[in-house]
Amino acid sequence: MDPRVLVVAGPGLVADPDLLRETVEAELPALRVAGRYATAAGPERLWAELVAAGRDPRTVVVALPGPDPAARALLTRPGPHTARTVWCELERTGPVPVGGGAAHLAGRGVWGLAWAVRHAVHRLRHPARRIGYGADPDQWAELRLPPGSGRVPVAVLVHGGYWRSGWGADLMDALAIDLAARGVASWNLEYRRPDRHGWAATTADVAGGLAALEAAAPGRLDLDRVAVIGHSAGGQLALRAAADAGRVALAVSLAGVLDLVGGHRRGLGAGAVAAALGGPPDALPEVYAAADPTARLPLGVGQLVVQGRADDPDLVDIGRRYARAARIAGDDVEQLELPGDHFAVIDPAAPIWHATADRIVTRLAAASPG
């Protein structure tokens, strides 16, 4: 189904409307979809736009509710649009309930609108099956299977965002879809972030989400051919989970934060490391020792360390030093450094991702007992 996109801004939204429109108009051609941007002068008009969009099964909605209480009440009001709506808030909010089937993205500023448009389109074009692995609203993963009925390898995707709640599993939508098209099932993992739940909850969720694969699709997933793939902060989580789990064929870091002590000392992400782990390394040596991929070497798992040369130079440095140290420790590590920035490594259109995906598919094929 070829989607159409409606982006509608609610009353009182604090943002330049021309910039929002420009953001949408830049995103639509990249996704090869048609769409329009609209503003609603009041809650009634916002609701009318939502209902009208709901009558067309090809239309997905990105709604920016704004601060008006009556407009915000629409987040939970059911309607024909609900399952095809992504509520997008530019500012940070706490957990916000939305109507069944809708999505909620918040705290990414104006750039978050581009991600919301992408997420809305991906959800309609390539729907996934969401499976919970715990009681919290953030304990789930989305499964996408390749066509056919045979057993297939699987990639567990762990998003980044410096371990902060503003970023979520939608960051990995495009990779999940691309991998499924390449014959690799994707398990796009959401987890509780430490800024709201603490570091122990985050690490427990990544481990629990990985373990939940066993019941996700019996007879389809080849659990002898599992790759754990993490982007940015998710690279750290992926390598730590692979080392803990043991039964992983390949661990992949995409621009990962693989030296937590060094990352803290250099102030990566405006103090993101200490904020996530609960304090600095000298106050929590055991926590850092368990979490830090550099401190855990050798991991005993085959690894692919991918880095865009135009990324933060400190991440380039960390990737190079980590790969060198992992080889010295005896791990099987391939380092891939190509042109690209921090997000090129999760962009299916980027050459660096094509090279990465080729290596992942090849490594998983080689891991097959047959």
Provide key terms for this protein.
370 residues; five-stranded parallel sheet; globular; 2 domains; alpha/beta; Rossmann fold; eight-stranded mixed sheet
Protein model, in words:
This protein has 370 residues and is of the alpha/beta class. The protein folds into two domains: 4-124, Dehydroquinase, class II (Rossmann fold); 127-366, Rossmann fold (3-Layer(aba) Sandwich). The protein contains 14 helices and 13 strands. The two termini are 37 Å apart.
Task: Give a nutshell description of this structure.
The chain is of the alpha/beta class and 370 residues long. It folds into 2 domains: 4-124, Dehydroquinase, class II (Rossmann fold); 127-366, Rossmann fold, CATH 3.40.50.1820. The chain is 38% helix and 21% strand.
Tell me the span between the first and last alpha carbons: 37 Å
Write down the secondary-structure element order.
EHEHEHEEHEEEHEHHEHEHHHHEHEH
State the helical fraction.
Answer: 25-40%
What's the structural domain tally? 2
Pick out the low-confidence regions. Answer: none
Q: Which structural class should the secondary elements be placed in?
A: alpha/beta
| Number of DSSP strand runs | 13
CATH topology of the largest domain: Rossmann fold
- Name the shape in a single word: globular
Task: Name the CATH homologous superfamily of the largest domain.
Answer: Alpha/Beta hydrolase fold, catalytic domain
**Major β-sheet profile:** 8 strands, mixed
Mean pLDDT: 96
Q: Give the helix tally.
A: 14
CATH class of the largest domain: Alpha Beta
β-sheet strand percentage: 15-25%
CATH architectural grouping of the largest domain: 3-Layer(aba) Sandwich
